Amino acid sequence: MGKPSLTPADCQLLLAQNPPTETFGAALATAGFTEKKTAWERLRRLAHAADTPCKFVAVLLAQLSPTADPDRVLVNLERLATNFPDPADLLRTLTENPRALEILVTVMAGSQFLTEILLRTPAYFSQLVAHHNLSQVKTRADFESRIAAEIAPHPTADARLDALRRFQRWQYLRIGTCDLLGLFDMPTVTEQLSRLADTLTQTALNIVAADTGINPDGFAVLAMGKLGGEELNYSSDIDLLFISATADDRYLRLGKRLIDALTRVSAEGFLYRVDMRLRPWGKVGALVTSVETYLNYLHRHAQLWEKQALLKARVIAGDEPLGSDFLQQAEPIIFAPDAETVQADVRAMKTRIESNLRKKGRGWGEVKLGAGSIRDIEFLTQYLQLAHGDTHPDVRSRNTLDGLARLTAHGFLSADEHRVLSEGYTFLRSVEHWLQMMHFRQTHTLPTDAAALTALAQRLGFAGDDAGVHLVDHYTRHTEAIRAVYRRHFFPEESRTEPKPDSAVVERHLARLAPAYATTFPEPDIARHAALAGNLRPDHLAEVDALPLADNRWQVTVVAFDYLGELSLICGLFFAHGFDIHSGNVFTYRPPAETAADRRRKIVDVFVVSPTATGQTVSSELWQQYAAELQSLLKLLERGDVSAAQGKLAERLAGLYRRAQVDSPRMYPIDIEIDNTSEKHRTVLRIDTVDTVGFLYELTNALALAGMHIARMSIGTAGKRVSDMLHITDAHGKKITNPQTLRELRAAIVLTKHFTHMLPRSPNPAAALLRFRQFLRQLFARPNWTEELVSLEQPTVLSALTQLLGVSDFLWTDFLRMQHENLFPVLRDSAELATRKTK
Known about the structure:
By secondary structure, the protein is α+β, with helices and mostly antiparallel strands. 58% of the residues lie in helices and 11% in strands. It is built from 38 helices and 13 strands. The strands form two sheets. It has an eight-stranded antiparallel β-sheet with strand order 6-7-9-8-12-13-11-10, sandwiched between helices. It is globular, with a radius of gyration of 32 Å. It starts with 7 loop residues before the first helix and ends in a 5-residue tail after the last helix.
């Protein structure tokens, strides 16, 4: 917890009736409140109920400052104090017990669902802050003994079911708090949630069996899906299957009553949503199936996906010997299909899922079903188990992480593949948990709103204002790596001979790159990059390696010799070929050691792109054309003819700019953070803004024209926003510290952003592009350029400049270069430009 920075004098001002403005700025803004006046009013009300108002406020503000949503926490804290039997006692505990306050703030910031449980039953607070008991992992026997004590005092079935619902609420709060505090890892959380569901289902069955007088012997409840694998989410449905010894109507009545007990909503809430669609014939099939009927169905009618679903089947309630015997008899049928049939069927099912997502306009950010998602890992695991489980029974496992470990132990997955899949699964399931934990909703998609994405990222442990960018970067890296493994197994026809340089080559390659490079890419990718770098020659300046991903996306790796302005050419060519850049990581070789054999610097740039046009087909021939054009432009850079390379690409882009649609000359805000403290030898730029056509191309070009070298860059997009981080130096490899240069750098980025947005309105975008760069050089050479920049902040003035730069060589040559001082007053007065003149 941070140290309270509020002095007694500041506190008195803050809690006064009319605090001065500077108090708001110093205390409330530091804590991160967006509604400062409302926050101040709530703080005053809470402080007046505390024994030591200033101490309470100081401790609270220090605790709130790193949270994702301090406004929400303050609202909930006031609600809890209002509901508490003795508000002063609550506030006294929070003031004197920092750990109790930390727990409470963490829960209220991380999950409104868990907060509502606490608000409904404030008595849970004392149990919640006793964190040493909170984090004890419960066995099923622990749950059973505790539940037995909870329901014992209640004589009726309805009262006992309500006791189960209350018990479930407390356990959700306990498990969720341990999750938020990092006391439980992801596998422990899912295991605890699954054991809780097992026990509640068994107890509910006992209650309805006693209430109906139906003996549950001969009736078994099987868990499927995530519950079967002991991988349950907070807001998951539970997939159940009912089987019986014989076809008897009493088992049907028992099954219906059990579903009602689990799903019925009372004043205490409900237990679970129940999905029974995995039974034979789905929704139209019998609710309870006899063992004989089910085995006959598996032999004659079941599709492969139904057998695949049974891989996770587990008896959780009722007649355990009956259920276990059924699963044992089903095993030979489940593992009978040959590997090729399994591969084709599982691949086809995953393809249908992704096709349906695209029809609904979903895809990127889908942590459960999309490309490189949880489902990729689950389907790959189950495919390999179905394909090899007959001859290697040890690979059979209901749990995904355990199944991956078993498949790796038997050589069906490599160690690198196991690392990619297990780390990816843990990350994506954690994201899924935290998405659902906030409001107890079945959601699996990353938010596109920048504020919501940042809040989610901070709850997941990513720090800083650019936490959302880091989350998207992690998500993208994991999903791309997962998808590559998935395609390797499901689309072996796409496999190719990977270049495998010896370890010494890889070590030399790694030695020339920043440490972050080794943590960004998996070992197979690093080996491929090293091999591609080894292919570079004076007559072969770049290697372009394009790998298809899902949703018509491509991972494109460019390894090339390093040139000033090269990155803008790479990005511009993506734009020219009709691709949007979704994410990327750019790395540049560091200066070589004196003894290095290869002293030339090289770049390793990896992007994820997709066609701008919906439905556009991308072929390997297109990437060959891209590579050829890049080679041609780099040859110009090799000769030192930078202007020719820029001009050639600008002409190539002219038509695209002309066709781009710009609804209005509105200027979008652009946030620029210049950081000279994070890195010893480089300046870090963090740029966040609305994405516009060609911006990344022009941004990198502007930096090149300013003589800046981009050593590393990470690109992130969320919805219509772009968040880029660039690590740059000057032309001599030094950090940029001169205040004047930094001002020019910031101005150049802002101008480039605005000018690029206006560019499609120019009658000649190619000419406008080239002249705009000359204009920037001239602008910064003038002593009063800051005053002239003010006029360019007006959309109408910048639009006029765009038209002027693009329409006439005469206007450019004679006015902008020769009569600069005379022209700028005219440009400032855009109304004067639009006035028709008499003779």
